[in-house]
Design brief:
With 81 residues, the protein is an all-alpha fold. The protein contains 2 helices and no strands.
Length: 81
């Protein structure tokens, strides 16, 4: 079951999507929302990989760099701004 904060974040995302489509029109709004979803999926995928690596005994020597077409490479774990 999703937490309260997850449900509120999801509701905020839907509200944002509606505002973007209304403000920019269907075609441009859809394009912007697709880019946002891809960025969120990229961040979730990278966070999942970091979580898996942290739980492994060889974590100190491992480095994961996720590259998604059209997005810049992720910073290595521990080197984020």
């Amino acid at each position: 079951m999703p937490s309260r904060s997850e449900l509120l974040a999801f509701a905020a995302g839907i509200r944002y999507a509606l505002e973007v489509v209304v403000r920019k029109g269907l075609d441009r709004g859809e394009e912007e929302l697709r880019e946002l979803v891809e960025a969120l999926e990229y961040a979730a995928y990278h966070a999942t990989l970091e979580e898996i690596l942290r739980s492994t005994p060889f974590e100190r020597g491992a480095e994961v760099r996720v590259q998604v077409k059209g997005l810049p490479p992720a910073a290595p774990a521990g080197k984020r701004d």
